[in-house]
Design a protein that fits this description.
The chain has 471 residues and is of the alpha+beta class. It has one domain (17-470): Metal-dependent hydrolases (TIM Barrel, Alpha-Beta Barrel). 18% of the residues lie in helices and 27% in strands. The protein has helices at 17-20, 67-76, 92-110, 140-151, 166-177, 205-214, 252-255, 260-265, 306-315, and strands spanning 32-40, 47-49, 56-58, 81-84, 115-122, 130-134, 184-187, 219-225, 272-275, 296-302, 318-322, 326-335, 338-341, 345-348, 356-364, 379-386, 403-408, 414-416, 419-426, 433-440, 460-463, 466-470. The strands form three sheets. The chain has a 15-stranded mixed beta sheet that branches. Strands 13-12-15-19-18 form a five-stranded antiparallel beta sheet, with no helix packed on it. It has a two-stranded antiparallel sheet with strand order 2-3. Strand 12 (326-335) and strand 13 (338-341) form a beta hairpin. Helix 3 runs antiparallel to helix 4 and helix 5 (166-177) packs parallel to helix 6.
């Protein structure tokens, strides 16, 4: 299939996040919300002819667009940063460094306004695919080659079953942790192989815990909203989740209040969610995908700088959204002139008044989104869970303390400039907790299991948490 013209299916151009939003008040580091996508495929997601030795690589079998086309479209739909994450395969590490990487370097020259990370969709041992994001530096290609050639489960030729074990995944994370420039690892479409609610497939709670225990500053989260969101537009499931569906476009591990994500947060883990396109082939060409930034965005509070984007992803300065329902989201917890935001921790004294003030600030979209719609926020939910410490049960996937403590409609928020502000007080906080936020354009009290409805009619946004410690 030939690649489409970059503007053939484009909707209204969206300004880059760094150009649209002012710095967060009081942030002397001049950080702003910068939208991006860390899971995008190019024509280098191809196929291998293993009848030859070494295998012969053919471009364009699974995904069809040149790296630069993805960058152009990412810019068009308002992204400040993007990452090429092509599939592996036998001897793919050599294809990456010899063929794909030179194209990435050319794309950086041709589309300088978009930060373009180097990495891959890592064939994680014993697990489904993961982002492997490499820091931007002179030897980035060699760093990826080292990790892929040593640890990607499909890179060996002939095949090596010994690579497809959890022990190999732990070995990979230990090697990554010991590198002077630390990569990031984020799990993809984690419940795509699940057969029911809480009946997991290839990815399990135990594996996430073991990996995060091994390298907590490397293995930092999973996709809350997987890609392939345009599937219903061609009669398929959202996300490619053919066994058990997504809920409001979000994976069950994220969408279920008190589910696995809340279980991990309830242990005090710094475990974050993202949202990506997983773009292979645009839905107008028969695929299941939107362009990078056309529908899903991962917003990171950062400067327009590779290192600061990675720092934001590593430390949870992230919120995610679909359909440009909103363009900015801030969540803070405060007590006695101390304040913490997403990914941060507010420490309060048990000897003082322990009320914690929560402020939620969001900015609705001005104009139309990429579908030509003017979506409106109908409700915002504040979700709170207790932090009780590490669980002895590695497979536990619930946090019964997590609840929606307040629901807010348009009558509950007030306007401040271009933003809307919601305030709520958590009274008599006696123990450690976290707070997170979600919002929607729907009337669903909880996100329902997805069918063939248009994804444009079912929009949600989620914050990452802010933590409160009582001392």
């Amino acid at each position: 299939m030939a690649a489409a013209s970059p503007l053939a299916v484009a909707g209204p151009a969206l300004a880059a996040e760094g150009d649209r939003n002012d710095s967060r008040p009081g942030d002397a580091r001049r950080r702003v919300w910068r939208a991006g996508d860390h899971h995008v495929h190019s024509e280098y997601s191809g196929e291998f002819d293993t009848s030859t030795n070494p295998p012969t690589f053919h471009k364009g079998a699974d995904a069809v667009y040149p790296i630069v086309t993805n960058a152009i479209m990412a810019k068009h739909f308002g992204l400040s940063w993007v990452m090429c994450t092509d599939h592996g395969g036998p001897t793919h590490s050599k294809v990456n460094i010899e063929q794909a990487y030179p194209d990435l370097l050319r794309s950086r020259v041709l589309v300088p306004g978009v930060l373009q990370f180097w990495g891959m969709e890592f064939d994680a041992p014993a697990l489904d695919h993961h982002t492997l994001m490499i820091p931007h530096h002179r030897d980035e290609a060699q760093q990826l080659f080292e990790l892929e050639s040593r640890f990607a489960k499909h890179d060996a030729f002939p095949a090596d079953r010994g690579r497809d074990t959890e022990a190999k995944m732990i070995e990979f994370l230990k090697a990554a942790k010991d590198m002077p420039r630390k990569p990031l690892v984020i799990a993809h479409h984690t419940s795509r192989s699940a057969t029911g609610l809480g009946v997991y497939g290839q990815d399990t709670p135990r594996e996430f815990r073991n990996g995060n225990n091994t390298a907590p500053d490397i293995y930092v989260g999973f996709e809350g909203a997987p890609g392939h969101q345009a599937g219903p537009l061609n009669g398929g499931p959202r996300g490619g989740y053919g066994n058990y569906p997504t809920h409001g476009g979000f994976d069950q591990m994220t969408a279920r209040v008190g589910g696995l994500w809340d279980s991990l947060l309830g242990e005090g883990r710094r475990w974050w969610i993202t949202a990506t396109s997983d773009s292979h082939v645009h839905w107008t060409r028969g695929g299941a995908d939107f362009w990078p930034g056309e529908y899903s965005k991962t917003h990171v509070l950062a400067r327009h700088d590779y290192a600061d984007i990675m720092d934001g992803l590593r430390n949870g300065r992230i919120w995610v959204g679909t359909g440009d329902l909103i363009t900015s989201l801030d969540l803070t917890a405060s007590n006695r002139n101390r304040e913490a935001a997403m990914g941060e921790t507010l420490t309060v004294s048990s000897r003082n008044r322990t009320d914690v003030d929560i402020e939620i600030t969001f900015r609705p979209l001005k104009g139309k989104n990429a579908n030509g719609d003017r979506p409106e926020v109908r409700r915002v939910d504040l979700i709170v869970g207790e932090i009780t410490g590490p669980s002895s049960q590695l497979d536990v996937d619930t946090n019964p303390t997590t609840k929606v403590v307040a629901r807010f409609g348009p009558r509950d928020w007030r306007k401040r400039g271009d933003d809307y502000v919601i305030r709520h007080t958590l009274r008599h906080v006696e123990g450690d907790l976290y707070a997170r936020v979600r919002g929607t354009c729907t009337d669903e009290a909880e996100p329902l299991a997805d069918g063939l409805e248009s994804p444009w009619d079912d929009l949600w946004f989620y914050s990452n948490p802010v933590f409160v410690e009582v001392r």
